[in-house]
Amino acid sequence: MKAIVIDQYGEKEVLQEREIALPIIQDDQVLLEIHATSINPIDWKLRAGYLKEMLPFEFPIILGWDAAGIIAEKGKNVSNFEVGDRVFSRPATTRQGTYAEYVAVEENLLAHMPSAMSFEDAAAIPLAGLTAWQCLVDFSGIKKDDKVLIHAGAGGVGTFAIQIAKSFGAYVATTASEKNMEFLKSLGADMVINYKEEEFSEILTDFDIVLDSMGGDIQSNSYKVLKPNGKLVSIAQPPSEEEAQRHQVDAGFVWLEPKGEQLQHLAHMYETGELKVVIGKSFDFNEKSLKEAHALSETHHARGKIVIQIKK
């Protein structure tokens, strides 16, 4: 099968197209023929070597942790999925990722795709959608009428987080550049702050939840908008315990746990129209396109998700 691999850490040039053997599945896995995958910041952060201590994989490494496709084969213990099913997944974090024509996936990490869902939309949801869900629902316990600040609302996690928060009946503020303000209002944001012209921490007060995807000073300033016992959840860097205690805030860092059950819930939200997928750009599956896709993701200014079409 065709795959894009890396044999060393480095710039986007280390991405190499190669023919490799098909994965061999275990009894609790399926062999998924991938029709689409997507790019997430973890991909290029791992490629550049920033995560080598957290994820000490041996080379060669196939990056990518989003997949949508058709089940080509199933293990003997797989009971809820059949060969031919259209499914999507955030597979386990291994060195056998989804920049490939096939991937092995555990049954409990799979979800059925609604009939109206395209492979491209399905590939855009898992990592970013589950991250948003676990930040807002699992960690923060979001509820109706909560006031929620979502940083970088136009990004992959941000676009899903806004919609998930609105589905719970929350009031949502978000930060963005001027060009994305109307777009984010169309997703349901109640207030969009132009971060180039306004300082969010001087405008917002008494918020219940902040989803921090930026870290640094933005994370530190986020405490100022929270009420006592509010929640600050970060996907950028672990918050300082001392800072959280000083502001009487419950702060934590979320590292995604793949869960097929939660992904099935997001599929239901898609089906009911509560969740729309925003694809900023789509690329073909080849070495040159993957390098371009990584370069776009590294700008931090991609709108929504970057999708790779593997099988057309």
Automatic annotation (TrEMBL):
Assigned keywords, A-Z: Oxidoreductase
MF term (GO), any: oxidoreductase activity
EC number: 1.-.-.-
Any one Pfam family match given in the protein's UniProt record, by short name: ADH_N
Every Enoyl reductase (ER) domain range: 10-308
Classification via SMART domains: PKS_ER
Full protein name: NADP-dependent oxidoreductase
Taxonomic lineage of the native organism: Bacteria, Bacillati, Bacillota, Bacilli, Bacillales
